[in-house]
Each structure stands twice: as structure tokens, then as C-alpha cells.
Amino acid sequence: SVKDHGRSHYRYYREDTTTIFPNEALMEAHLRRAIEFNELSIHLQPQMDLTNNSINSFEALLRWNNRKFGFVSPAQFIPIAEASGLIIEIGDWIIDEVCRYQKEWQMNGYRPVRIAINISPKQFRKENFARKIKAALKKYNVPPELLEVEITESSMTNVHETFSILTELKQLGVYVSVDDFGTGYSSLSYLKRYPIDIIKIDQSFIADITKDDKNEAIIKAIISMSHNLGLEVVAEGIEELSQVDFLKRHQCQKGQGYLYNKPLPVETIVNKYFVS
Ligand code: C2E
Ligand code: MG
Ligand code: MG
Ligand code: MG
């Protein structure tokens, strides 16, 4: 359901029961100490290979359980983290944490899986982002192909800057995906200009697949364009089998959504997918 709290409109969010802060300044003050107080955690959402129903990759999604106000939705706190610059420290923590899991899983002999992390524009565009990724991979001895960096079109504001960061990431060997594809205002020319591997079709298109012919046409076009450009396609927000049928019929290889799994705590994922 769409939550409407007086003058503030928050994005669609129904995964957990979430609370809200009385005001943004207070939220920022609490967020500032969230890492130190161990209030942040990472949930992982499995990505389903629609061609054979196997799971070989996950998306990392940040969760914040504040000691005073309880669960806060990323739709509420990510924009505050971004505006205040706190997203850099939080993002660094996520990169480290995800690489640490990879190391631990490798040592436990679990099968290799890729983990995608969401990178905010501020972090992506901060000097030395690629070197940071490189250092984290090295610290935990993680093969680069097990890390995926999700960016949005809003990260790609400057052509030269974007090209150089993406080229560095490509040289490292990590995967790069464009999240929420179709919702931005960028020119499609970036798809041929930049070394991108994956396109994630925004969940708003998936939600309306069966209700709207225009959405069908758009999704079909995104999938075939991606294939022609040699890109992998992931559908976000799959909630119904009819959506899967449509996506499979049109050769979309991967998808994630509540139909398969909600984002789950890391321990749950480990028990469910790795410990036999
Ligand atoms: P996103 O990266 O596009 O992530 C997908 C969102 O859709 C997640 O919401 C996920 O829980 C939700 N979702 C997954 N399957 C379904 C489904 O079947 N139906 C519906 N209705 N929703 C589904 P979440 O975790 O609340 O995150 C919201 C957004 O906050 C993310 O969108 C991303 O932009 C941002 N975010 C989350 N974690 C991080 C992070 O670690 N770093 C950064 N920079 N941003 C993050
Ligand atoms: Mg994402
Ligand atoms: Mg998305
Ligand atoms: Mg998003």
C-alpha cells in the first residue's frame, strides 16, 4: 500500500512494518550513529534464473533497525543518507560486509554466487570508487566476477567521468548493472557507449505487464534491445506467475521478486541455499 503520512509521501514499501521519524533532522542524527550502534544489516534477495530455476546471484539490500524508532524503510533513509553524505560511509560498510561474506562462504566451501550491491550516485562519483572496490576484493580475496555494482541512470550525469569509472570497474572484472531501467531520462546511447553488463527492468513495468499493452511492448523492446547489445536482462518485482510466463516467453533470463523470495537476512539465506 502507499503510505501517506500527512505532508510526506513515501515510496511504495510493504516488506516490513516500518516506523517513521518525526522529522528528517532527527533521522539524520540517528543515522549518523547507525553503524557504530550496529543497527544496520544486509538482506539478500535471490535472483532466479528463469531458464532453469537456479539461483546463482543475490541483491544486497540495506536494512536499518533503529533502537528507538524500529525499522526504517530504505525509501525513507537512503535519500537522507545521500543528501547528508552519510551514504559514503554506509556504502563503504556495505562493500566491506559483502566481500567479507564472500570470503567466509569461500572458506566454508559454499558454491560461488554473485552479490549485487546498490551504489548511490554520490558514492559512484566520488574519487577513487573503483580503487575502493579493488581494495575490498583484495582484502578478502574475492574473485571480481562475484561482485556486481548496481548503478542508476542518475549516476551517469557526466559522460567522461562515467566512462572512466565504468572502464576501471570493467578492468577489475566486476559486473555492472543499470538498476530501475526505464525510469530515468537518460539517452539510450549510453548503452553502447559504456561497458555495462546487465539491465534491470524497473518493477513498475513488471507490475503492470498483464494489465497494459503498452507495458508489454516496452518490456519486449527492452529485452530484445538488451540481447542485441549483448546485455543480460533482469526483471525486478515479480509477484505473479503470469508475469513469469510473459518474461519467459520473451526470453528474459533472470528475475527477482516476492513470488520467489523477499530479501532475507544473511543467516537465513545461508541456511536455505548453502548449508545442506
Ligand atoms: P532497488 O535497488 O530497485 O531494490 C528493489 C526494491 O524492491 C527493494 O526495496 C526490494 O525489497 C523491493 N522488492 C523486491 N521484490 C519485490 C516485489 O516483488 N514487489 C515489490 N513491490 N517490491 C519488491 P528496498 O529494499 O526497500 O529498497 C528500496 C530502494 O532503496 C532500492 O531499490 C535501492 O534504490 C535503495 N537501496 C536499498 N538498499 C540500498 C543500499 O545498500 N545502498 C543504496 N545506495 N541504496 C539502497
Ligand atoms: Mg537494486
Ligand atoms: Mg530497482
Ligand atoms: Mg532503486
What would the keywords be for this entry?
disordered N terminus; two-stranded antiparallel sheet; alpha/beta; binds ligand C2E; 276 residues; EAL domain-containing protein
Order of helices and strands: EEHEEEHHEHHEHEHEHHEHEEH
| Major sheet attributes | 8 strands, mixed, barrel
- Distance between termini? 37 Å
Quaternary structure of the protein: single chain
Q: Number of DSSP strands?
A: 12
- The mean pLDDT is 92
Global shape: globular
Our estimate of the beta-strand percent is 15-25%
Bound molecules: ligand C2E, magnesium ion
Q: Structural class of the helices, strands and pairings?
A: alpha/beta
> What's the helical proportion of residues?
40-55%
Taking all Cα atoms into account, the compactness measure Rg is: 18 Å
Unreliable residue stretches = 1-14
Strand order of the largest sheet: 3-4-6-7-8-9-10-11
Individual helix count: 11
Domain EAL: 24-276
Protein name: EAL domain-containing protein
Verbal overview:
This protein has helices at residues 24-32, 74-84, 86-107, 121-125, 129-139, 159-172, 190-193, 203-207, 213-228, 241-249, 266-273; strands spanning 4-5, 8-9, 40-49, 54-66, 70-72, 114-118, 147-151, 175-181, 198-201, 232-235, 254-255, 264-265. It is globular and about 45 Å long. The chain starts with a strand and ends with a helix. β1 (4-5) and β2 (8-9) form a beta hairpin. The protein is 41% helix and 21% strand. Bound molecules: ligand C2E and magnesium ion (MG) (3 copies). One magnesium ion binds at residues 179-180, 200, 202, 236.
